[in-house]
Amino acid sequence: MRAETHSLNTMLEYQDGAVVSKTILKKNTGTVTLFAFDEGQGLSEHTAPFDAMVQVLDGEVEITISGTPYQLKQGDFIIMPANEPHALKAIRKFKMMLTMIRS
């Protein structure tokens, strides 16, 4: 892999009425994935077997973890603990980087 610079906010564009994702790094030990959510779009409640960090790159989102809602905006991040139910809903269209550590 050769070193290159990138702009996270321009690697992925919004699409009307959709959630778009792009994996930018995938290793046995974890993944880094970018997401762009149109306003009102989201992910229904689910769990993951590993801790994950969500960094909001643009916009605003409500993330619910184990029934507790958290509102995040550009520049904020949150750790979603392994095996805790969580869901996301775009308050305004937003972009995030999801870093999942598999260990």
Describe the protein.
The protein is mainly beta and 103 residues long. The protein has a single domain, classed as Jelly Rolls. It has no helices and seven strands. Strands 1, 2, 3, 4, 5, 6 and 7 form a seven-stranded antiparallel β-sheet that branches. It is globular and about 40 Å long.
Kindly list the characteristics that best describe this protein.
103 residues; Jelly Rolls; 7 strands
Summarize the structure.
By secondary structure, the protein is an all-beta fold.
Helix fraction by DSSP (H/I, runs of at least 4)? under 10%
Q: What does the average pLDDT come to?
A: 95
CATH topology label: Jelly Rolls
The helix-and-strand class reads mainly beta
Shape: globular
Summarize the biggest pleated sheet.
7 strands, antiparallel
Q: Supply the CATH architecture.
A: Sandwich
Count of DSSP-assigned helices: 0
CATH superfamily: Jelly Rolls
Low-pLDDT segments: none
Topology:
Blueprint: E1 19-27, E2 30-37, E3 42-46, E4 52-65, E5 68-73, E6 77-80, E7 86-101
Antiparallel strand pairs: 1-2, 2-7, 3-7, 4-5, 4-6, 4-7
